[in-house]
Specification:
globular; 27% strand; 247 residues
């Protein structure tokens, strides 16, 4: 990956312990992959004082310890990295996520079908056949913003957000789908539920299941299978792995 200075990438202070490296001003899969690629480069450089790198749709947030490295020194090193060839991003992992689109697991499915002019079965088919790209994690720890939702399912957020959305709820809004990793308020349309834990503090090295750049497909399961998987996950007897290998 070569970053040309002509691209006018913007670096700015974000408080007194972080820098943001802005690659553009749009939501675009290729742009996000450039952000992920450069985040990998910064992480691999092991710059003393850099605490964490966080990719977003269009920018990379670089957290640092100001007692170890100054803002100006970090910015100089980042600019130097931007101006030379860097390793390409490793391919993102692929995941198949079991999801139940039935009964109490899908409280908004019928309403989504009515509003889109599809049958509930067609909503499930359209949603589950699409491979989704993990643009970023945000809102809640481990919450994945997954694009790009098919246009046939594009809806604005609910007029009345819920005060409590159960953990594992699979939801849609605008051109995104996502999974609520924890119980929280939320205004997206709930069309399914997964027993998989998208954030688990007991996974010490990587508590979030997904990373920016991964790809996700949802695999419909019956409510009975959903309940069985939920029990297995709760008992620690089931751990989802990426397709074709271990994390």
């Amino acid at each position: 990956m070569m970053i040309s200075p002509a691209e006018q990438i913007r670096i700015a202070a974000c408080g007194d312990t972080a820098l943001t490296v802005e690659f553009g001003n749009r939501i675009d899969r290729n742009l996000t992959m450039r952000v992920v690629a450069f985040g990998n480069c910064v992480s691999a450089a092991r710059i003393e004082g850099v605490v964490e790198v966080v990719p977003t749709y269009r920018s990379l947030l670089v957290h640092y310890d100001p007692l170890t490295i100054s803002c100006s020194s970090l910015e100089a090193q980042i600019r130097q990295m931007l101006g030379r060839a860097a390793p390409a991003a490793a391919g993102g992992r692929s995941w198949t996520i079991p999801a139940c689109y039935e009964g109490p697991a899908a409280p908004d499915l019928d309403d989504v079908a009515r509003r889109t002019g599809l049958t509930p079965e067609e909503v499930v088919s359209v949603h589950s056949e699409e491979p989704y790209f993990v643009y970023m994690l945000g809102f809640l720890p481990g919450f994945p913003y997954l694009g790009d939702l098919p246009a046939a399912l594009e809806l604005t957020r609910r007029d009345s957000p819920r005060t409590r959305v159960p953990a594992g709820s699979v939801a849609i809004a605008l051109r995104m789908t996502g999974v609520y990793p924890l119980e929280s308020p939320g205004g997206w349309h709930l069309i399914a539920k997964t027993p998989i834990r998208f954030f688990d503090h007991r996974r010490k090295t990587d508590p979030s299941l997904l990373r920016a750049g991964d790809t996700v497909r949802f695999a419909p399961v019956s409510y009975r299978d959903f309940e069985t998987l939920s029990r297995d996950v709760g008992a620690g007897n089931f751990e989802l792995k990426p397709d074709g290998g271990s994390p």
